[in-house]
Design goal:
Length: about 250
Amino acid sequence: MLGIGGGLVMVPALTMMFAAQAGFPPAEVLHLALGTSMATILFTSLSSLRAHHKHGAVLWPVVYQITPGILLGTLLGTLFASNVPARPLAIFFTLFVCFVAVQMILNFKPKPSRDLPGAGGVFAVGSGIGAVSALVAIGGGSLTVPFLTWCNVRVQNAIGTSAAVGFPIAAGGSLGYIFNGWGHSELPAWSLGYIYLPAFAWLVPSSMLCAPLGARLAHRLPVATLKRIFAGVLIALAAKMVWNLFA
């Protein structure tokens, strides 16, 4: 409904849920929340990609250009995230949430001022988007859409292309969190690396079921007002997550 990455909601919610359970090591709850959220986005992004492709809104040449950088960035991002303690990682996540919230409150839209860079430039931008997306477990829309609109891509095409880019972000990120969490004996049972399968099994069908509902509501409700309200909710969720980790 609001056009933001689901990870911005899932990560703080899962972190608080995991922290409240027995058998979840405090040092790993945020990594498990990030990995589980990223794996969920793998499926929800497919649904979004299909819908935008039907409307002809996906610029596939841009997707093909940016995907190698995205994959490299997500793999490096998950490697970095798995080796960073939970507290500094939580601070980075919170700062990013605040950045997105300010974007939503101000309804910031960069003015189109240039064309897309060459292949090397697109690769570099994709690497940066992939790395940040892996660190905060989002589909990348908060970064991809502003970049594409800044490069004179129509908003509809920017959103559609961002939806398509969300799949390689989720694929690379999920593989990275599985690999980097593999063999950690302190992780709870039913963990596939840093992906907690019971939570994943509930999140995938429920999020895929509700995503189309949110898309329909976006055309009926005052989304600009809802975004400003939800920005405050995001900041509150992130702050509560940090409080729990530090307490």
